[in-house]
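Why does this matter for the project? Reviewers at the last site visit asked to see concrete outputs rather than summary tables. In response, this paragraph embeds two records directly. Each consists of the residue sequence and, immediately after it, the corresponding structure tokens. Nothing has been edited or filtered.
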Amino acid sequence: MSDDVCLAEFEKYLTDVKKSSANTLASYMRDIRQLEGYLSSHGRPGLEEAGEDDLAAYTAWMKGNGKSAATVARCIASLKCFYTFLQNEGEIDELPTTKLVPEKAAHKLPQILTSKEVELLLEQPECTDMKGYRDRAMLELLYATGIRVSELIGLNVSDLNLAAGIIRCSSKGKERIIPLYPAAVKALSEYVEFIRPQMIAEPDEPSLFVNVSGERMSRQGFWKIIKSYQAKAHIEKTITPHTLRHSFAAHLLENGADLHAIQEMLGHADISSTQVYSHLVKKQLKDIYNKAHPRA
């Protein structure tokens, strides 16, 4: 197969067989296309003919160009998936990826906002126009539930039960019910009742949050929104949509929430993913102790 056919068949495999998420699909395809570009520009064989030395040279080239250990590790995972696919399809006899071993990435604790910083961020949307009401509802919902940004923009109006103060969130084939605090219920109620009907492009639009064109909000669109409010609030920490998810979990833990309850609300399959917040809270307490104790 030509490289173009290889890529097309691999994309079809990820979509139809692996049922990969949109993010995983985009990530894997980007990694393989970048490998294809490297092989072509460095006078090496095509994707099917590339051998162990070619792939080793590629990962070394990535490191030499400043790619992080985490980025290289993700790329290696993509390469292993791609070449296993080619082998299963009978296109190659041996895997050229057997000697690719990712370096262990330095473990970084997630950055969170303080309670005061969260309050400051949530105060930024001004409810003087439709966009302000929508943005306030989005930020309140994100901090109230700790859902992922992909889950936030994927919500439909039917996922809300404001009378009960809950949302239904579906991800990776699993559904979870997450409670909402009163301020989030109020912000969502005002948006859904008075603002959203004026913003949607079609009466049967299912999306909860829509852009100025009246269609479902995109990840990029929400990223721009949250960065604009970070600048407006003069918060120096780098804030991403995931920052509020981390802050939600850490603040619950700080205030005595059960780790398994947080795991369920976050939708973590493994408790070890949730335990990182325990380490984060302990580190913060240690930092406070070292700064405040007279003999520290």
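We now turn to the second protein, recorded in exactly the same manner.
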Amino acid sequence: MLNNPVTIGPLRCGRGQPLVVIAGPCVIETEASTLAIAQRLRQIAEKLAVPLIFKASFDKANRTSVHSFRGPGLTEGLAVLRRVKQSTGLPITTDLHEREQAGPVAEVCDLLQIPAFLARQTDLLLAAAATGRPIHVKKSQFLAPWDMKNVVDKLVAGGCQDVLLGERGTFFGYGRLVNDMRAIPQMQSLGVPVVFDATHSVQEPGGLGASTGGNRAMVEPLARAATALGADALFFETHPDPDRARSDGPNSLPLDQFADVLQRLLVVRRAIEGMPS
């Protein structure tokens, strides 16, 4: 039996609930910068009365190049995330890439995130399910929305009843992702809340040769469309200086623009909430 809405720390995401925002830098660069971004996001969330979950990765295990920055690693990264949680009170999420990471990550994070490339990894899903934490699985770029039923079934078999699925674009030719917005209601029909990952949806994998490119100008238009379609949550990577970010800078939103973007999206959300069902 799946829960919908899903409880994530003090928040609830899903049917009949406010729009949830998941936001933060792609990767933990330094403790100081991560704490500063989290504090700013907390202020924005309080001002706009938006439930917000902070996200940052301790390891980017799927970087294009072996020379790319990956992050501080599990031990140091989780220590930073623990301090973010203590100092801001925000619920926390991060990616895990190996089943051995599930237990340690669950001790700190309120929501476990499975990267899109790993959505079919049965042992990883079962290890995550065994922690008892809610789990957000991003739809693989090579899967159809209805294929995610098998992912949900694996998690339920592992004892997890709190599942979110993420839409983050589908491969289209070389170096491009496209969004089929039908994926949002199609995955919701599986009985779970759906997260729209607005910033990863504008990635151009390998577009910069040794790193991933992107087009951040398309983040807000896609997020508006997803909000209008009734997505339960929106996911954004944001950074004070995206052009100098050490991962996913081309598709990250500038932090000083984030509040304005979010405010415009909330106008869309309020409009659809006022429509007859």
